Amino acid sequence: MLPPVGERRGTTDDDEATHSGSQLAERYRRAALAYVASGADADLTPAYDLSREASEGQLSLLALAEAHAAAIAEGVLSERDPARQALAAARAATFLRDSLASFEIARRGYLEAHEVARLEHEHARQLQAIAEVSAALNASLPVADVLELVTAEARNVLGGRFARARIDANPTAGATGTPELSATSGDAPPTSAEEAVRLRATLFGRRGLAIGELEVFAPDEPEPGDEAILTQLANVASAAIANAELYGAEREIAETLQGSLLPRELPRIPGLDVEARYVAAGDGIVVGGDFYDLFPLAVSDGWGIALGDVCGKGPEAAALTALVRYTLRAAALWEPDPVRVMELLNGAILEQRTDYRFCTALYGNVRVGDDGDGSARVGLVNCGHPLPLLLRADGTVETVGSHGTVLGVVPDPDLHVDHARLAPGDLLLLFTDGITEVRRGGREVFGTEQLVALVAQLAGSSAAKAAERVEDAVLTACGGPPHDDLALVALRVPQPREAAATPR
């Protein structure tokens, strides 16, 4: 029957440990008395077994001594015969000596096992930290960010009070120069005592040359394996630094090549407000195939305008983009007919390219002021490209022209010129499909319908403001770097009051 509520007693871990210790002490006392009485080797064996059990049960040496004292009091001191008492005391001493020896060996083994377990746990934690650092450093971080991350993690993993890393400027093998990049972690610089026990590991560059150093300072002596851990961190950081340098070099090459495929700046056209935007897909390390151009025509008083999208990405696409842009410019120098210009370009692609890449493009001429009312006239040839949008001053949005054959597919493309008149306040928007084919999560999030709705809100906006609004809307819809290049050109005829306010 259970006791009434309030009188129940729970058994705690401490109670159980005390009870177990008392039982072990009692068993020890009985075993010691048995050996004192008999002196037989068989009765000495419990001294070893009970001592190991006491050590494994984390029984204190004092508890073992108390159990032995109880055995002496009962089996030795109670003996009245001096000779028998001396013999009992000798046997009790032997039992105690062998018990303590076994206890010490077992305890030492327990402590060593505990230390091994602690070191293994610490090592596992360090390896996990290195794995996490490696994953973070694989994210194509800039070199400065690599140094910041590895310095903080080195201090954290090795329990240091302070850590620092540096990369030297123009290093050579076996020598260092003026620090170019550095990072620190910790509140206070190391003391002279900590300098003496610091851990150091070398950072290497792309060609295997030493480029800097990673250091960790702690108030205590380093543990075994700490140097190897720091070396691993330095090696991971070295690989990330080499990748960052290579990535930076490739990005610079891509940006230089991409820049050669686009005009450095747009010409200033009297009576026309012009703006262009270009955003490369992804991280910008791969050269895209979109391009635009605006240039004076030698055969007339007008301006040539071009915008296109070459199939694919990378060097091959860039080579075709260069062929398209510069062939188009060369043909436009002496050929006034936009259709004939595109026919010549189509023939050049078919003749010089054998990889079956094609190109969609818009090309035409723009003339301003021919009607005497400040308006502009545009004649466009559309080679399989998205139709431009024309925003009237009253907010109405129209598509311009119709599709012709893409370039680089057949030798006799079906091409024609479509004309449009831009009155004061009207804006013409030319764009590539990176603007109207934005997908995220497997579905289209920004297309022609969304673009038309946005453009309808831009009446009265300058070309620059309109281009900015469209670019921002597309990048917001992408939710990150765009998956496709995007290019757009905005042409707007200012209202008379705007033209008068614009300095010439």
Q: Could you characterize the architecture of this molecule?
A:
There is one protein chain. By secondary structure, the chain is an alpha+beta fold. It folds into three domains: 15-114; 140-256, GAF domain (Beta-Lactamase, 2-Layer Sandwich), CATH 3.30.450.40; 265-501, Phosphatase 2c, domain 1 (4-Layer Sandwich), CATH 3.60.40.10. Helix content is 46%, strand content 20%. It has twelve helices and 16 strands. The strands form four sheets. Strands 5-16-13-10-11 form a five-stranded antiparallel β-sheet, with helices on one face. The chain starts with 12 loop residues before the first helix and ends with a helix.
What are the key terms here?
16 strands, 3 domains, 5-stranded antiparallel beta sheet, Beta-Lactamase, Phosphatase 2c, domain 1, single chain, alpha+beta
What is the CATH homology-level superfamily of the largest domain? Answer: PPM-type phosphatase domain
Number of helices: 12
Helix content: 40-55%
Q: What are the low-pLDDT stretches, counting only 5+ consecutive residues below 50? A: 1-11, 171-178
Q: Using only CA atoms, what is the Rg?
A: 42 Å
Instruction: Let me know the largest β-sheet.
Output: 5 strands, antiparallel
Write down the secondary-structure element order. Answer: HHHHHEEHEEHEEEHHEEEEEEEEHHEH
- Distance from N terminus to C terminus (CA atoms, Å) equals 106 Å
Total DSSP E strands: 16
